Amino acid sequence: MPWIQLKINTSSDHAESLSNTLLENGALAITFQDTYDNPIFEPLPGETRLWGNTDVIGLYDAETDMAKIIAALAGQDRFNKNFIHKIEQIEDKDWEREWMDNFHPMCFGQRLWICPSWKDIPDPNAVNVMLDPGLAFGTGTHPTTSLCLQWLDGLDLTDKTVIDFGCGSGILAIAALKLGAVRAIGIDIDPQAIQASRDNAQRNGVAENLELYLAKDQPADLSADVVVANILAAPLRELAPLINTLSCGHLGLSGVLASQALTVAQAYQGSFILDPVVEKEGWCRITGIKNNYCEFVSTQVANGDPE
User: Do the annotations mark residue 145 as ligand-binding?
Assistant: First the structure.
């Protein structure tokens, strides 16, 4: 099956926003390419490396009326009628294989690696999560997932229970288990996410320690030492009444744009002592500790009970 490819020349500063515009106008996939074909160096974990002069390439169905797409783009303030672009037909290819070839092992924090299940692990002595996301969100390449993985790597999860709201591929819940958690609970609204999480848990040998629920079926008596939620701002605000009442200690939230961080933080600040917001590529991570958690831990330690 043939496809139509629209290539637009822009700068690295505008490439991300342009890619969003193309997606809003019907693009099925987006690729960034160096205009001058400079060598591509290995990016940092979770980083999307852009160049000084960048071509943003949108892939469209062959039946798409590209004249309408170009007219819509030309009508925007950032463009003029003669903006530099190229339209061409391309033959079908194995796009899934193309994506797989560009998903490389990535390190988060000091010891955690996320590795494609079809590639060799770079460090056998590290904490390795073998991942195949399927159709679910979560590979570690997106800044929000990267922020959450780095946060989990910095926690002492030994014998802890972790709840992952919006578990997607299961990447965060499985990483928590590999980092020492004794139990993880993954919740999502998408059945494909539940299946991907289950498959990845089996792939990593932690299926017996991971409970998975569709949101409509989640237990009423949820409780955990750590809650992580990498979703979007609106669902995070909606979940606040539930999460605020959970018996939990550490909280990690992401999927939040910098412009949304304040309103999301306000929904949780009454129940949690929040840390400074951490930002990466326009996305934010909000973390904190439950108000009475430190007192609870101190009491447990004083009584000789395990933390």
Answer: yes
Confidence (pTM) = 0.63
For 89-146, the pLDDT digits (tens) are 765 555 445 555 556 788 888 888 888 877 787 788 888 888 775 544 556 678 888 9
* 292: three-class secondary structure by DSSP: coil
The residues near 70 (Cβ < 8 Å, ≥ 6 apart) are 85, 87
- Tell me the two tokens of residue 303: 């009584």
In single-letter form, the type of residue at position 256 comes to V
DSSP code for 216: G
Closest CA to 48 of 133, 147, 172, 143: 143
Q: What tens digit of pLDDT does each residue of 239-285 get?
A: 999 999 886 799 999 988 888 999 999 999 999 999 999 999 888 99
Instruction: Tell me the domains of the chain and their CATH numbers.
Output: 3-92 (3.30.70), 137-296 (3.40.50.150)
- Backbone phi and psi for residue 63, each to the nearest 5 degrees, phi listed first: -85, 0
Q: Has 263 been labeled as part of a binding site?
A: no
Does the annotation place 230 within a ligand binding site? yes
Does the annotation list 158 as a binding residue?
Answer: no
